[in-house]
């Protein structure tokens, strides 16, 4: 098992088949050409630059073909990829680069100046800039390297580390989840089974490539499918689905909402769609119904973490059943364990909590798709991976059939007057108001109750509602202590590049918490 | 990865779901009950009988629920299953048991006397008879064992051996292909992707459980599907598909032919079928067309060996394309590599032969689904597994897109007048005569040419043809030197329990070859 050889099979069998469609840079590349460039890059890194097995190669770029080449080229020859989130501050990037200690740092021209500044603060053997130009560092390196299969590719085993993904920037100090060829591959198997991938699929990658969903795109490539790269924007996504005959993609709830809100949505030809997966939390029932009516395909929901890839799925049949009135409440569930995965919801001693749909516990996951640990964080690794189980920090209840309902991130729980309040429950209630597009609920300091429930709401375009309206509707679905005490209206919520709402940015000003010095 | 825990997930999530339908013995068992019996068996073997990790457990029985329990129970606690072909001679069974050295021998009541005789000739710690009777050895063993999860199950890793499948009885001295939990699991991944398994499937196991296709049934169980066990008979198979709402099965060409020939075929409700896989050689185009019209589902073809499970597949789309006139010749191909598999067609030095559809070479396979070796046959293992590649002994050509066309088993090639003649090509030509149901072509001694091409033919019921008719039709599709020199007509061809034609039994009398002393 060498993930870096994923492109080799299709390059051999169907060399002319389209591998990547790079929409932002208006480029396309076939499997045959891509695989040759990957071999050249691997040879350049190991033979020409002299890197040793296990050395790290960092990359800083928006989505593009070269980014995917770096993933595969690095994997092909036994190195470790270290993709960086370009939204991080310079100080945080320095910290990650000092932690990951890459031997080589590959950067798109857009970040040339930033990279030069970073280079002054870290110890990196070589900085390589690419600019879609035959004379750039990267192209010259490839041109002078051998196109043969690198001899190092045969020495790679499934247990070799291949990827460090930094995570946790929104909830605490970043740490690098370390994956091997095997762990990523097993995560792909989970996805293959859940998404029911077929070789005729065309996949659109909606997320940024420094996040775990990039493994989904690599998985479609393992099936010989073309992958379309975009920087997500709702109208663009619809245009690309129509033009490239996209059959599958991953969308967080907000993306789906925005796509359906695009003017003239009905006019787009979306008939190529076969299935899409949504994540980042359950979709409100009204949105699922709207999506199933609007998109001519099946839906699944996935729940995962960088540490374990996608761990549970709400299946195609679960969605159909729920809309037909069989266990409709399961639309609020993130489903059941993936094909290669075991899941438990447990108390702090690791004993499963009752499957009563009421008793909260922590989600723990046993899977060969789990990371092997945090990079250079043995204590944190030992806390998180115990006896083969990944402790996710996510709080859930589960029902008698093992469907998992996430109630909150462990750290996001609000405690008001001694009662635990899970913000997702409050958000779900707020979404019962038809004018609500998005919401974020969190706790703010309160002299009487310790914490008070605050909601920040984005209304749908052209719609109106008052704070009192929102609280009244939400109150119909909540216990009195759970209802929001205050509601603020904003134009947009702060979000990570994945689309995940950065609740911390909303909450922290109220708490005047001491930000880590970045 | 512990294959013995395949039933545990569904037992936990859907304990009442049907796991096995045992048609021959008219019994059914749920995942919850099955998993408990598996845990009891594992505890009985390790704790009560004191077996050590890696000990072998032999089983001799026709298809039944207990057989599946033995597979899983043995795997669950780190032992190795050694299933025996009940069609073998007593002397051959003794040889295999001496080779495999099982500590325990589990036998259905049908083979009680045979087992007693065998026990006199081998050194086995315990013989366990089962008879679907609460007072039989097996049930008493289970009743007295703990139903808890065996402590040994957590010590099993993917690299532990789990199954010895004896193979080669039709072409030479039997040898035991040794599979690990991981190799079988990776073979299942190949099948999962190729068959596009969904959790709503119902699988019918048409083969006997001492053969590699049993892993397909276990795979459907890994997806939580019910598996229906039968001893194949065409009319029964149709009745069972209708009654149990079977969605998938594996049928060799002959089975499909016989099913379509059942009187009143049109009256059966086969609407539950989603896909079936055929193997044991390509189906003639006329049969594929008839099958696609007769069965309301997709078809795939698989090619495999006990040593590597299913290695190549001709996909659903390949069939549809071929019938639509796109590469119709590929209906004679066994397709392209499975998801986890690499395939090459090579010359004796291991160099790929040209992809010209003409140059024969040997099929070699690199896959984590390959066996890890032959049991206690290091020399044969070294000959067969070289640098991670399995040398199959099968001769094929491949086309420019990597589609593999098997021309013959290496040992079945006919050499006549210095020309290589591949019997499958001759058989395909013979099948152009509409009266031909089955055929077997092989070489017989010829003073002038070294070998002469002989055909043995079974005609369709109620149809007639002469030897001259057959030769004339075949000649239209063959070079002169390839056409049969003689044709014999028989009522039936000798076959292995899998349905594979035992060409050796037809050919050997002509060659008076020295049979091994069994």
Question: How is this structure best summarized?
Answer:
The structure is a homodimer. Helices cover about 30% and strands about 25% of the residues of chain A.
CATH topology call of the largest domain in chain A: Rossmann fold
CATH homologous superfamily (4th level) name of the largest domain in chain A = ANL, N-terminal domain
How would a crystallographer describe the biggest sheet of chain A? Answer: 9 strands, mixed
Give a count of the beta strands of chain A, DSSP E runs of length 2 or more: 26
Low-confidence parts of chain A lasting 5 or more residues at pLDDT below 50?
A: 513-518
Tell me the CATH architecture of the largest domain in chain A. 3-Layer(aba) Sandwich
Largest interface: A-B, 24 and 24 residues
Which class best fits the helix and strand makeup of chain A? Answer: alpha/beta
> What Rg of chain A, in angstroms, do the CA atoms define?
23 Å
In round numbers, the mean pLDDT of chain A is: 91
Helix count from the secondary structure assignment of chain A: 16
Oligomer: homodimer
Distance between the termini of chain A: 39 Å
Helical content band of chain A: 25-40%
Overall number of structural domains of chain A: 3
Quickly name the level 1 CATH class of the largest domain in chain A.
Alpha Beta
Strand content of chain A: 25-35%
Strand order within the widest sheet of chain A? 2-1-10-9-11-12-13-14-15
